[in-house]
Amino acid sequence: MEEKQFIKKQFIKNMIYTFAVFTILVLAFDVLIYTRAKRYRYDEIDTELQNFASINWNHKIIVLNPRIIYIIRDEKGNILNKESIGRLYQYISDIELDRNKLNTIYSIKVNSEYNYRGITTKTYLASNEPYYIQLLANVDGENESLKSLKNRLFGMSAIIITTSIIASYILSKKTLKPIFVAWETQTEFVQNVAHELRTPLTIIQAKQQLLLKEPESKIIDKSEDIILTINETRRLTKLVKELMILATADSNQLKIKKELKNIDEVIKDIVTPYVEYAEMQNKELLLNLGCDKSINIDVNKITQLMIILLDNAIKYTKEGEKIKVNTFFKDGKGVIEVIDEGIGINDEQKKHIFERFYRTDKARTRETGGTGLGLAIAQTIVRLHGGTIRVYNNEPKGTKFVIKI
Ligand code: ADP
Question: What is the pLDDT of residue 106?
Answer without folding.
Answer: 93
